[in-house]
Amino acid sequence: AEFPPLQSLDSLPNNLPQQVTSFIGREKEVAEVKALFGKSRLVTLAGSGGSGKTRLALQAAAEMLDGSCDGVWLVELAALSDPSLVPQSVASVLGLKEEPGKSLTQTLTERLKSKHLLMVLDNCEHLLNACAQLADTLLRNCPRVLILATSREGLGVSGEQTYRVPSLTLPDPKRDTTAESLTHFEAVRLFIERAQLQQPGFVITNENASALAAVCYRLDGIPLAIELAAARVRSMSVQDVNVRLDQRFRLLTGGSRTALPRQQTLRSLIDWSYDLLNGAEKALLCRLAVFSGGWTLEAAEKVCSGEPVEEWETLDLLTSLVDKSLAAVEPAGQTVRYRLLETVRQYARDRLRETGEIEDWRGRHLDYFVCLGEEAEPHLTGAEQQMWLERLQAEQDNLRAVLEWAAGDPGRQEAGLRLAGAVWRFWDVRGYWSEARAWLSVLLAENHGGQDRTSRANALNGAGRLATHQGDYPAARILYEESLSIHRELGERRGVANSLHNLGIVAYYQGDTRAARALHEESLAIMRDVGDRQGIASSLNNMGDVAYRQGDYPAARGLYQEGLSIRRQLGDRRGIAGLLNNLGNVAIEQGDYSAARVIYEESLAIGRELGDIRGISGLLTNLGLVAYYQGDTPVARALHEESLAIMRELGDKRGIALSLNNLGLVADYHGDYAAVRALHMESLSIQREIGDRWGMAWSLEGLAAALSELADVARGARLWGAAEQLRELVASPLPPADRIRVEVAVTAGRAALGDDAAFEGAWQEGRAMTMEQALEYALEDPDISIKIKR
Fold it and tell me: N or C: which end of the chain has fewer CB within 10 A?
């Protein structure tokens, strides 16, 4: 009963990293930082680079887990260079995505209003304004959110408590020192432990105690500086380290250790450490500064080799930098990634800039990732897609860095376009839609007359696919048509087929099934002619979609099954999941709900395996429909709400509208017609925006049923008539299960009005409306008496 509960990072919601070295001292500082949250909800740990801000923040955060019921979340900002991506980084850590019509900051604010959590913003100094604006917004609108920031200076936000991170406790080298007395000081304890990692037999003795005290004192108790010095014990004595400090730093002039600012002190230490490197080590360290967010051994070999660094010796040189605490190793699944401490990376980048060669090595960095992206491209739809998705995810910061540089350099824009055109499927699967569209838009605009027309056409297709997902069909059509024109001009038949395929998808989503079928048939013929099995499977799938929408379920099943057979032969897991989903749709429409559930669950397992966010959301929707048709409305509502949340995060307007309609079905089942009306009106507004005529018909029908139940039967009849006319226009009849539901609602509405002639007249008025007139009429908010039928 006297023991406090054990604190385990695994038992409470958080993403704090498990530390591989011990936390030395700082008990007083941790207690003071925690106490400051009694005065303010924003505490900023300020200090120079290497002063231990991050480690202190992580320790304090870990000790505050028990008081944060919604978790403690670390947002690492060191790899970012674009201030606009600060909200994206926070959202990614919290698992939140964009919502249509809202900024990410608005989304974060709304989702965190009721949360009780601690957010750790690490390394804010280079993004100070963006971090300050986000922190201020969250603090003003989210009363139980706490923020712990680390920066070289305060954020300057009202109510902020700035805590200056002190040096580790230090001995006074002017006094007589012994091995026993020195171990009470934090700086000495840190030096000893880190030295023992390099040389297990290292111990403090009365012979080296004085030199050790001097080293810690001269390094001002800065943790990173002490760790770098301790790493030298592998090749020299503490006394030698102390001598070298005399020669290089000259920290104590006039007896005042505050004569030099800490940043200059740290740079002096890195200068000294840098001077101890041989020529090849120096060259490699500087060249590694072009990476952002880490790198693999292969990347270092390809990017950084060249006189005096031989490719074959990169591993040995990298290991040496790790040994000297200038680089760090991070296990990442079955591979290993490396990174530079941020302070060291900035130092190395400055050194590289001084050589006048930084543009050359940044060019090598860009070229490597262009090659990597183009190597990944064919695998993003094949049997190895999961491995390649994970690999590109690990390189996201590097992709951002090279694209930012390429976009701003006219000589590199074409290479940037090649990269963006190669990796857009990665962005698509992982839900980076808005960011991806932004990169593609910039690069396409800047490289309109480039020589590499094929890359431009590929990038146009990628940008069009992302626009399609976000319901921006007019933009998608323009992008696809330009891509088609380029492929025709170059005589690239496979490219022509892909563009036709994509234009067919736009036509399908906009309800023009006749045009969609023609485009897919033309695409399929070309794919068969050139022997593109992946393309054949895609065209079969799309033609199955058209048949499904037109109510020809046997034809749809046949097309889907033929496509699935090809996908299985190719090992295309995402393609398999998509076709299984479509076969589940057919099973639902034919009333075989048990079979549909089994098929959907197989597809969902693949989607989760791949991290296919949009695919997961769609399958949750479909499983929700199965639950609805089987009468399990609580499960149906939960699944549709989960799907809606994901679609809002992705900014998938069509998916949002679909989920709203499905929630309308559940509300209708429970007789909550006011909710039904609100859900279908929101959905209809989105479908009008994106031009989804098939979805409009469904929303009009749902809205008509709700209005009929809310004592506005004539209005409902007009909307039923308008929906009927719209379905005829797009050649998309009601599926059987929905037809029964609509017929029941229409019969009830006709009986409620009690005047068949009036009901039929209103119906015909709706049929006579243009689509735009029907939408205007449906979205009006008349002042009517809402009386739910009991």
Answer: N
